[in-house]
Amino acid sequence: MKTGGCHLKKNLQIWTVVILTLFLFPVIIQFIPEESKISNSKIIKENALIVYASNIVEEEVPDEEPEMIVEAEPEQKIGNLLLYFTHSTEAYQPITKNIDGKVAVSHHQTENVIRMGDKLKAQLDLYGLETDTFKKAVPYTRAYQDMRPYVKKRISEKEYDLIIDIHRDSVGPEKTTLVHGTERYAKVAFVVGTDNPNYKKNEAMTNRLKEEMEKRIPGITRNVIPKGGAGVDGKYNQDLHPNIILLELGGIGNTEDELSRTIAVIAESIKEIIDQIEEK
After folding, report:
1. Between 253 and which of 5, 64, 127, 173 could a Cys-Cys bridge form, CB atoms 3.0 to 4.6 Å apart?
2. Which CATH architecture has domain 78-279?
């Protein structure tokens, strides 16, 4: 009986402590310093804020957009020009001699007026002019008749503002060379076929190019040579289009430097004419 009384006494003591603690806790908590409460509360709030901010950042980051590639617009070309070569193998003796190291010849398969035409095209391209080159080799004899169907076909396929048939004159350098300032130029002559019933239109465009060249380098052109009647072609296919110009670029004895300087003047003059056409 004594042992049971001891257990009962201990139980009563435990319950007494528990009950006192529950009643006294509200009183005790009032004596805890306010700073301690604020600090604990602040830590809880800051932790909550940090977590919340992290979530917001994740939600606000947009998906990475693919990089935009802006394609450059193609250069706008102006005008429509055609270069062709009825006598495609006509060459310049100083050039062929330098290339082959042999006695100069007046005809060559590669060093000829076609290569000069490529130089002119390159200059015209720099000015933004749309330029086609037509390189069809035909036999030298009856060249205009053999070339005619090819030129006619090209003209029917596309509308051109200016067409130039590039040749080389057979006269010597004393007639085809100009010294202007400190530079030497190959002089240019023109041919107009008067058996073409509308040759006046070709002549007008030819004179237009001649005048533009003379404005830049006085004396760089020779004459506009009219040809018709017996013993000559008389049309030179100029009847196929009112703006076909037959141009004699230098002569048999002109050097590449002289020709290149003249080609630059021709290109600049053509650009001026095309600009005038575009304005209209």
Report:
1. 173
2. 3-Layer(aba) Sandwich (3.40)
Confidence of residue 69 (pLDDT cuts 50, 70, 90): low
The domain segmentation of the chain, as residue ranges, is 2-60, 78-279
Which one, of 147, 140, 178, 177, lies nearest residue 165 by Cα?
A: 147
Residues 46-65, mean pLDDT to the nearest whole number: 46
Q: How far apart are CA 103 and CA 91, in angstroms?
A: 13
Assign 46 a pLDDT band (cuts: 50, 70, 90): very low
Whole-model pTM?
0.73
Considering only CA atoms, which of 196, 195, 86 is closest in space to residue 141? 86
DSSP string across 179-244: EETTEEEE-EEEEEETTSTTHHHHHHHHHHHHHHHHHHSTT-EEEEEEE-STTS-SSTTGGG-TTE
